[in-house]
Amino acid sequence: MNIPDNLKYTKDHEWIKVEGKIAFVGITDFAQSELGDIVFVDIKPDLSEIKMGEPFGTIEAVKTVSDLYAPVDGKLLEINPKINSEPQLINSDPYGEGWIIKIELTNPEQLNVLLDAEAYKAQLA
Predict the structure, then answer these.
(1) Segment 39-69, tens digit of pLDDT
(2) Mean pLDDT, rounded, of the chain
(3) N or C: which end of the chain has fewer CB within 10 A?
(4) Vertex 123, ends 117 and 125: CA angle to 5°?
(5) Mind spelling out the 3-state secondary structure of 61-114?
(6) Residue 12: exposed, middle, or buried by beta-carbon count in 10 A (0-12, 13-18, 19+)?
(7) H helix runs in the chain, sequence order
(8) What is the pLDDT of residues 93-102, one digit of tens each?
(9) Shortest CA distance to 61 belongs to which of 91, 35, 29?
(10) How far apart are CA 101 and CA 7, in angstroms?
């Protein structure tokens, strides 16, 4: 199971990678393996901001649909354009090409309540 040390994690299996005030959000390797083959990602069409703990879209696999939860508050900057035509990128590269949204952090202090890699590993154990 791949759990990079440079990311923060939620109990709902989202990850966030912060670069200054900008952050990328996706689902963890564990989450994609539990979901199976991902066939569609649906981000709310009117989405301009995300709120910590609230759903911002859904991810659909062959057998199930799951909500995507915001790890922190932020302004939506971009939805990964590749995942429309290649949702399987989330399965093959969940921490790289398979990112889901890019945001601008509006409350960076919220990062302090997220799990680090060790705490996330412990949750999975």
Answers:
(1) 999 998 899 999 999 999 999 999 899 999 9
(2) 96
(3) C
(4) 105
(5) ECCCEEEEECCCCEEEEEECCHHHHCCCHHHHCCCCCCCCEEEEECCHHHHHHC
(6) middle
(7) 29-35, 82-85, 89-92, 117-124
(8) 999 999 999 9
(9) 35
(10) 15
- Cα angle 95, 97, 99; round to 5: 60
User: Which token pair is 108?
Assistant: 């960076």
Q: Give the per-residue pLDDT at 1.
A: 83
* One-character DSSP codes across 24-55: EEEE-HHHHHHH-SEEEEEE-TT--EE-TTSE
pTM: 0.96
Amino acid at 96: G
The span from the CA of 46 to the CA of 34, in Å, is 29
Nearest to 31 by CA among 71, 76, 77, 74: 71
Structure tokens at 111: 């990062």
Burial class from Cβ neighbours inside 10 Å (0-12, 13-18, 19+) for residue 70 reads buried
